[in-house]
């Protein structure tokens, strides 16, 4: 009986591995799939070049000439004669367009430089204000400390300065309370 149970378990195990292998084979895909991707990539690159040609970014014929192996001079002459000649007005227009692109790029560069300069000035201004505020705070703290540390000849603290700072503190609290009550009502 133990042998019978063992056989069933083994058969079940074989079935599971077979099932796993079968699903794995389905995931591999077809051999032509990679080729299709390559074709799609080439086609998309071609479309991109066409779009750039329409915009006027890249001269596709010149690009293809560079990619092709060297042809004889007679072939080049026949191609140049068959190709339509560009009128001088069109050449001038293209040069003007390129110049405007250059001026536009220069304008954008100047604009970026100006914003960068303004940010730098603002940063230095904030830094300077912060340093001044910190300096004022330190001097005020130092003066306060020196006044509060003053002692009489017998070693007792000078109460005049203590009372003065307590009075300032109370006035400040009163001022804050009156401002809070006026703003809330």
Automatic annotation (TrEMBL):
Q: Where is the composition biased (Basic residues)?
A: 1-23
- Which InterPro entries has this protein been placed in? Fyv7/TAP26
Q: Where is this region: Disordered?
A: 1-40, 57-136
Q: Residue ranges under compositional bias (Basic and acidic residues)?
A: 29-40, 107-135
Its domain of life? Eukaryota
Protein name as annotated: Thyroid transcription factor 1-associated protein 26
């Amino acid at each position: 009986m133990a042998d019978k149970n063992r056989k069933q378990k083994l058969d079940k195990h074989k079935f599971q591995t077979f099932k796993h292998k079968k699903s794995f084979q389905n995931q591999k895909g077809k051999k032509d799939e990679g080729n299709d991707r390559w074709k799609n990539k080439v086609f998309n690159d071609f479309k991109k070049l066409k779009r750039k040609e329409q915009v006027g970014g890249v001269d596709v014929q010149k690009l293809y000439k560079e990619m092709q192996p060297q042809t004889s001079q007679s072939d080049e002459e026949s191609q140049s004669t068959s190709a339509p000649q560009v009128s001088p007005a069109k050449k001038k227009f293209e040069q003007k367009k390129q110049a405007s692109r250059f001026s536009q790029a220069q304008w954008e560069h100047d604009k970026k430089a100006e914003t960068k300069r303004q940010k730098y000035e603002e940063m230095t201004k904030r830094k300077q204000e912060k340093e001044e505020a910190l300096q004022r705070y330190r001097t005020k703290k130092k003066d306060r400390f020196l006044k509060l540390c003053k002692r009489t000849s017998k070693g007792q603290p000078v109460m005049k300065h203590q009372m003065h700072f307590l009075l300032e503190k109370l006035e400040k609290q009163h001022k804050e309370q009156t401002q809070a009550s006026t703003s809330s009502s």
